[in-house]
């Protein structure tokens, strides 16, 4: 190798690391059993988009819930730590602000990050409410650039927060956040 080429590569280390980063989509659903998808041959449920993602991507077949309910499990997935260390022992507990999250790690690695759906990590209980822009425990506080979220979910005609701005929607909340 010539010295000029070596000098060029040393001056531009990003040329060595220019491999395309894979897209990462983490899908998490409350109360969904392992066999409730088409790719696990469910006899009635049709999940063509999830089936395509499972066929063409990396599938975690041994991905277990960190707790028996949703808020602690969300905290465990976001941080990689057991829920008792994250501050989220049950519904109504807020994620510790000092927690390092998968969103922040991906953002640091140059990814665009987002959260779409039920947040449930800011300590609020009860029916779903939009998340305020200045909420210390919003998805932004944990490394998520874009979000269309609510504190807890409800089914029809939700008011969601898009990066802290409230939006009224018509229809089923699950379908709205996936679109």
Structural class: alpha+beta
Number of discrete domains: 2
Order of helices and strands: HHHHHHEEEEH
Name the overall outline. Answer: globular
Integer average pLDDT: 85
Helix content: 25-40%
C-alpha-based Rg, rounded: 19 Å
Task: Report how far the terminal alpha carbons are from each other.
Answer: 51 Å
How do the strands of the widest beta sheet line up side by side?
1-2-3-4
- Find the count of extended strands (DSSP E, 2+ residues): 4
| Fraction of residues in β-strands | 5-15%
* Tally of alpha and pi helices: 7
Describe the structure.
The chain is of the alpha+beta class and 179 residues long. It folds into two domains: 30 residues, no CATH class; 114 residues, no CATH class. It has seven helices and four strands. A hairpin with a 2-residue loop joins strand 3 and strand 4. The longest helix has 10 residues. The protein is globular and about 45 Å long. The N terminus is likely disordered.
